[in-house]
């Protein structure tokens, strides 16, 4: 963002705060269900574990290019920690009014690593009883297919505002490098709101069903704590300070840490993940490393999290020297901060009206229990961000599937809402 650009937080008055609810619903865009599911099958049949997305990036690019959308590759490079090189795919539909809002449609192309417990091809794309099976079918190739066909349908509409489609790499990896790079390179600087088509209900804080709009998410910080004791002969442990034992005491205390609460996001949480330390026989371990997951709610900052852990260390009276830090990241700004989107925001109103138009019911409202690229958009980029995606089961596991009807409904809702929001 240039120095003379309007700050994100001051742009709420730049466009009509009320989406157009007087639209002719018969003229609203609708996707082709068969084409949508055919596309989903094609996507699922391409293995794309994080850091291995070259083939699917090329497929998404070619699919958009064949339909005349002039896509571009947006290169993602992280040479220091992961040595990763990959490509997001970006395309834009230009509206007729430069003062109208710009809507971001974001979906990730990668999956978790292929799990070994499948009793069939994990990339089969098999359809049975309204369910499409495959690694990443629900998380989130169903959502990727939905935004691709919605974007294609919107190309035939006379829109006032722009639509920016970003199909990104490495959401499932340790740093979310694809969307991080979009933000750091300024690709989303002109956007006013975002839709992310992650599977929503299955990872919501409460038990909800589609159609659902998830209006926020907890954040996540990752403690990486160094514990330095004192080595000694293992036959006389009292003469040393066992760093592994002290790290264990600290892990137990952090597991019981009082965390924040939020009326929408619920409670934060802590979860000790790993203790490393000790290697020699008959030696008291002098070093240990403790890693702890900390999910946070709005109002809990990184410095709050650090102060909480340091307070626990002091209260325990450990003999070790303890350095409370956080996981190394490629950039200081790579943090999954929590966020909440106002229920009265024009995008939420547009999506609610579109849900009623497409599904004939009011949407459920909910909040995401974990983290993803939507945190980068909702917190770091300051974009009002809504998660609306198809549901399924067994995400990140063998037997993953997505409900095909949900994929089509999400595509229709997104396309309809874009017309309402953009004018």
Automatic annotation (TrEMBL):
The keyword Metal-binding appears for this protein: yes
Required co-factors: Zn(2+)
Region (Disordered) residue spans: 1-30
GO MF term list: hydrolase activity; metal ion binding
Keywords: Hydrolase, Metal-binding, Zinc
Pfam families reported in the protein's UniProt record: M20_dimer, Peptidase_M20
Record organism: Haloferax denitrificans ATCC 35960
Manganese listed as a keyword: no
Compositional bias per record (Basic and acidic residues), positions renumbered to this chain: 1-14
Protein name, UniProt field: Peptidase M20
Residue ranges constituting the Peptidase M20 dimerisation domain according to the UniProt record: 216-319
Family: Belongs to the peptidase M20A family.
